[in-house]
Amino acid sequence: MIKKTFAFAALLASTFPAHSEIWTGKASYYGLKGRTASGSRVGGFTAAHRSLPFGSKARVTNLHNNRSVVVTINDRGPFTGGRIIDVSTSAADHLGFRSAGVAKVRVEALR
């Protein structure tokens, strides 16, 4: 019985993430000509986040139009108060907020 209980608990642990990181707040976009903090370049669907590790993925959803995109974290920031993520211009275009400059978004770390 103990083995079955342990197996069931292990199955549940592998099915559900132990810790989900989700933020809601403002996003902006940026484009750099030089290198990012990780040594790579801004382009495609990349983003800057204060704490997510370089190379990790995050789903960014524009809460106004429900469009979402998966970005790769390759820089640190944003450094403007009240913002939780800076996305590349391509990601901002896909999310539909490039002309506005800022959008309310949900950021979900993907594991």
From TrEMBL:
Keyword Signal, does the record have it? yes
The EC number(s) given in the record are 4.2.2.-
A Pfam family found in this protein is DPBB_1
For whether the record's keyword set contains Signal, the answer is yes
* InterPro entries given in the database record: RlpA, RlpA-like_DPBB, RlpA-like_sf, RplA
GO biological process terms, alphabetically, are: cell wall organization; peptidoglycan metabolic process
Q: Which GO terms describe its molecular function?
A: lytic endotransglycosylase activity
Domain of life per record: Bacteria
Signal peptide as annotated in the record: 1-20
Where would I find the RlpA-like protein double-psi beta-barrel domain in this sequence?
A: 24-107
Matching Gene3D superfamilies, A to Z? RlpA-like domain
The record's keywords, sorted A to Z, are: Cell wall biogenesis/degradation, Lyase, Signal
Q: What does this protein do?
A: Lytic transglycosylase with a strong preference for naked glycan strands that lack stem peptides.
The entry assigns this protein to a family as follows: Belongs to the RlpA family.
Entry protein name: Endolytic peptidoglycan transglycosylase RlpA
- The species is Methylocystis heyeri
Encoding gene per record: rlpA
